[in-house]
Structure to design on (423 residues):
């Protein structure tokens, strides 16, 4: 094949066996292709990607991993890595693992409805109770004169079946103050009327209609101001004014027409008229285990303020106690805020190596959280300050004809030392 040649550095390179020397690249570089018809495969293109939950994302693409935005970036010729923001989410798989592997007396989980939420958003929108101001903190405590023998376990739902209302969901709306106030008012009205005035008081009415109709929807609030509203103006039922506070851009304008003089009835947004439901001024239950138990045993659920910390969001079951697992981490991992809940009863958990006393509480994060919406928390140690500020009321309603027609229940016969006033 003397006619098959190529000039290289002024020399003709011929297509013959001389060019089939392995490792010699200075003679007939196209010999395999031209002379022998061997086509070399094209160079292999290395495509790098990052894998998240079984899905692959190419270099340069972005994906949300919980509350953080992540980008797939090439870090070497043959390796790509997901690089994410370092924001603190409500869901924290590592903290869940530490709690479940530890000996804390309760179990944790990550919740789908918290997916994509920052911890600071949970504190801002899933709680919603302002710390009491000084005059409220100094409210006189009301002491029961008569003491009852208390059982080791008590559940208001069992003591008054059908009269204690279930768990609701405030959504991403800072409204625990309104939900706990409305729930305790509903329970007390139902219990004290023996079911004749069985109503679910509307938290939306409190949220939208206090402050002269300029409400505080999803911005947090003071429970004592909610009670003041029920004392002075009365509240309507959930059927009359359904909850809408979690909707985006919902107006805070009150949809219940206000009159200059408080009346016994109200016109619902639908136009129908219903009787209002009132309460007495709230009274503060002494901040000790025995008095709180006596109050619940005698008259039903109470309202309790508590300081929620980062790990309560992850509570699944058991008796909660703050774990302090985040104390060594930066401050953004250790956030807290005030919340208000109902205490329905108490008990003793004997599933651990030593008995643990607990309060039975109803939260307002829906039935999918905790123990079907409820949680148990250590009793007698003011865990999360849940025993530090507890309120109770008596319900009253102009529709409550039972005052004249129905016999008063034994648990309605109360004797108190002193009675607080509210302005």
């Amino acid at each position: 094949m003397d006619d098959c040649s190529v000039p290289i550095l002024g020399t003709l390179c011929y297509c013959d066996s001389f060019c089939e020397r392995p490792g010699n690249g200075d003679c007939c570089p196209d010999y395999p292709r031209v002379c022998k018809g061997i086509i070399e495969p094209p160079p292999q293109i290395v495509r790098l990607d990052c894998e998240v939950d079984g899905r692959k994302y190419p270099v340069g693409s972005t994906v949300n991993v919980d509350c953080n935005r992540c980008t797939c970036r090439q870090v070497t010729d043959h390796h790509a890595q997901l690089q994410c923001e370092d924001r603190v989410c409500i869901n924290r798989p590592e903290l869940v693992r530490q709690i479940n592997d530890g000996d804390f007396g309760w179990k944790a989980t990550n919740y789908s409805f918290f997916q994509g939420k920052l911890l600071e958003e949970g504190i801002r929108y899933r709680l919603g109770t302002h710390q009491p101001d000084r005059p409220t903190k100094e409210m006189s405590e009301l002491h029961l004169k008569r003491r009852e023998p208390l059982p080791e376990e008590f559940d208001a739902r069992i003591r008054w079946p059908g009269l204690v209302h279930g768990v609701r969901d405030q959504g991403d709306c800072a409204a625990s103050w309104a939900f706990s106030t409305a729930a305790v008012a509903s329970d007390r009205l139902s219990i004290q009327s023996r079911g004749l005035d069985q109503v679910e008081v509307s938290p939306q009415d409190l949220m939208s209609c206090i402050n002269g109709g300029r409400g505080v929807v999803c911005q947090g609030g003071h429970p004592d101001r909610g009670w003041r509203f029920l004392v002075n103006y009365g509240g309507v039922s959930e059927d009359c004014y359904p909850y809408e506070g979690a909707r985006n851009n919902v107006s805070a304008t009150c949809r219940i027409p206000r009159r200059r003089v408080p009346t016994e009835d109200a016109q619902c947004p639908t136009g129908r008229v219903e009787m209002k439901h009132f309460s007495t001024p709230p009274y503060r239950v002494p901040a000790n285990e025995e008095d709180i138990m006596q109050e619940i045993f005698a008259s039903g659920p109470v309202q309790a303020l508590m300081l929620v910390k980062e790990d309560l969001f992850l509570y699944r079951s058991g008796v909660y106690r703050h774990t302090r697992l985040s104390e060594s981490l930066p401050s953004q991992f250790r956030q807290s805020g005030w919340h208000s809940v109902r205490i329905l009863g108490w008990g003793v958990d004997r599933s651990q190596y030593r008995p643990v006393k607990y309060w039975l509480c109803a939260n307002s994060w829906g039935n999918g959280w905790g123990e079907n919406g409820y949680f148990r928390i250590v009793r007698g140690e003011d865990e999360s300050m849940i025993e530090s500020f507890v309120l109770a009321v008596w319900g009253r309603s102009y529709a409550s004809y039972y005052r004249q027609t129905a016999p008063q229940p034994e648990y309605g016969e109360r004797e108190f030392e002193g009675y607080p006033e509210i302005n």
User: Anything to note?
Assistant: Residues 399-423 have pLDDT under 50 and may be disordered. Residues 49-84 form one domain. The two ends are 113 Å apart (CA to CA). The chain is about 20% helix and 25% strand.
